[in-house]
Amino acid sequence: MKLFQKDSEKIIWDQVRPNPTTPVFSNRASNGYRKLMMYLMVFVCVTYLVYTLKLLNTSNLACGEHELIFSTRNSLENLTLSPEIVEPEKTELKHVVFGIAASAKLWERRKNYIKLWWKKDAEMRGIVWLDNPVETQPDDGLPPVKISGNTSHFAYKNKQGHRSAIRISRIISETLRLGMDNVRWFVMGDDDTVFITENLIRVLNKYDHNQFYYIGSLSESHLQNIFFSYSMAYGGGGFAISYPLAKALETMQDRCIQRYPGLYGSDDRMQACMAELGVPLTKEVGFHQYDVYGNLFGLLAAHPVTPLVSLHHLDVVEPIFPNVTRVKALQRLMLPMKLDSAGLIQQSICYDSSKGWTVSVSWGFAIQIFRGILSPREVEMPSRTFLNWYRRADYTAYAFNTRPVARNPCQKPFVFYMTSVRLNSTTNMTISQYARHRVPHPTCKWHMHDPSNLDKVFVYKRPDPQLWDRSPRRNCCRVLESKRKRLVVDVGLCDEGEISEVVK
Ligand SMILES: *[C@@H]1O[C@H](CO)[C@@H](O)[C@H](O)[C@H]1NC(C)=O
Ligand SMILES: *[C@@H]1O[C@H](CO)[C@@H](O)[C@H](O)[C@H]1NC(C)=O
Ligand SMILES: *[C@@H]1O[C@H](CO)[C@@H](O)[C@H](O)[C@H]1NC(C)=O
Ligand SMILES: *[C@@H]1O[C@H](CO)[C@@H](O)[C@H](O)[C@H]1NC(C)=O
Ligand SMILES: *[C@@H]1O[C@H](CO)[C@@H](O)[C@H](O)[C@H]1NC(C)=O
Question: What PANTHER family would the database entry show (predicted)?
Fold first, then answer.
């Protein structure tokens, strides 16, 4: 089975390869091709023989005999390299090689972000590419480091940028040249990018790694996208390149880079070469460049209905949980990630009908409670807790819809941040706890229940690793218990007919 698959992969591979590369490979591939042709010829001859014999034997073919011929054909087809009988092996972490762009100057600080997601014991492969040597320890829980090739002979003519862009742009090619085996995808990221690797794998499994794929996402900033490109994967958010595409890129990238000395960064150089190869960006909006300042809260609490793949610019924005360091905050996010990565920060919207409140759960991250009933189409829109890349709170700055934090002072949300999460192994449910973020609220004259007495929210949720094997849909939430000081909510698959509405 394994051998079969390898052969058929090679054939598919050979077909998509734009031009022959190493002689070893093309010999092996053409051997496979010759074998396939031979099998085909044998198959045609045998079929011809069978049909001739059958026609000679019977002048009047009955239904049953048709079937007989058919089944003979099937078992013969089995002898040829039929791709249908090969159950494709799912993409796993071991099929991915990471290329991490780093610099010696920022290494001491930034390596802590890599430590958050890098799993040394798992079958994780990757290289940190640096400009200058750094001190490393064998047990530092980090990927191996390498020094990038000398790029001083490449022209760089952008006045705002830095020529390290050329070095970083070549990381995929340099990683490919290391000749690792059984690679399906190369994934690029910066030293301040945090990957949720299980979700990365979920996304990559949607695509055929034998084809050319360039997968990533845009900037949040409309102006950045205009200046650079709406067709480019922003490098900090990370992007994935399938093996055959990396192979094609490697043969032309150095020539290609020479044609664009005026570009700013590494990712626009990459996109320029993708355009020459004719490969468009496949957008996956779980990769996050986060070209914003201030607080990511609004974006995280209303994440699109897609797996969270990456977070970037973590040095630029405030820590994602208040009153802790950036690294500590991210460490806290890793706790729910370990229990239910598919559901991490996914939003659910429901109502506490006894109190007249809107409840928005971003599982494993935060809860928002609003006075009054806000429609799901409003709550699923990110609130502008962040500033744009030019440090202004301008709603025209983004390539998506945003809303003000509150349209009415009474509707400023009460926010609860996750403090702990555990799994009850008897019920197989996660129980996550969220504590009130105590900040001053404007006076509200509405005569209704006041959430300011609430201390804690508890959320029950069954881990759902198959969440993204189904069509995208928000989970439903239900208020189970609404007391003076605590609220208990259940999150999970929507029941038949269940929607986000006030249940009387
Ligand atoms: C053909 O199919 C049968 C049953 O599915 C299997 O046992 C046999 O190994 C197959 N032959 C080849 C050459 O793969
Ligand atoms: C890079 O190459 C240039 C000449 O092409 C040379 O002058 C320079 O010393 C090299 N740098 C390193 C770090 O090897
Ligand atoms: C922030 O953390 C410190 C020390 O952990 C604690 O004393 C303080 O009360 C916290 N402040 C808030 C607003 O949670
Ligand atoms: C797990 O759930 C069961 C059933 O609700 C409960 O009896 C038990 O105390 C829970 N265990 C923990 C550790 O919370
Ligand atoms: C909990 O999960 C385990 C392992 O997945 C399973 O064996 C067990 O039956 C589950 N229990 C319940 C109550 O669903």
Answer: FRINGE-RELATED
